[in-house]
Amino acid sequence: MQAYSSDLSACPLKEIPHFDGSEDVVWVNQTPSSTRYSRLISFSFERETEELSKAQFNKMMKAECRWCNFLLSLMATVFKCLELILHIAYRLPFRRWRVSSKEDKDEMSKRQQSIQERFRKEAGLLVDVVKRGHGTTNDGNTSRRFFRDPVNTSNITGVDLQLIKMLHTIIEVLPQLYESSNQ
């Protein structure tokens, strides 16, 4: 008997649970053309053996682990880009990275508070605020919103608009490059 294998990619449009008899829509895919929710479905027409099952399981786990590791490193990159822009903004008046005198540190602290306050008032974002026992408020949602409006971010931080736009482009393109390299 000849073995046959085929792969198909599927993207859900909406989720409607039918186990309770209701027709309530739980979730709707707002971007059906995106690959974000796309899942690979493999069809294989061959005799099921223990070796085949183990091979398929290992293939699936390897792909999932690779994707999870990439997502973790991508999230770290996004956070680091956000923190880089903020730390540049805090030090802009000094035109140097190391701020050592007490007067300069006090001025940098005031500038940091001013930038944080403007983000809170103008964009509704809590950026770089220390959370007791949890690091800072810089998370994935904050980073996305921070880079989604580069003009406002540039106006608040004083950092060059083109630099912010370039970092945003890099952040947006990285997942697509990963997906295309794994196909």
Automatic annotation (TrEMBL):
Q: Which UniProt keywords apply?
A: Membrane, Transmembrane, Transmembrane helix
Q: What is the protein name for this chain?
A: UvrABC system protein C
Taxonomic lineage of this organism?
Eukaryota, Metazoa, Ecdysozoa, Arthropoda, Hexapoda
Membrane spanning segments where? 70-90
Per the record, the domain of life is: Eukaryota
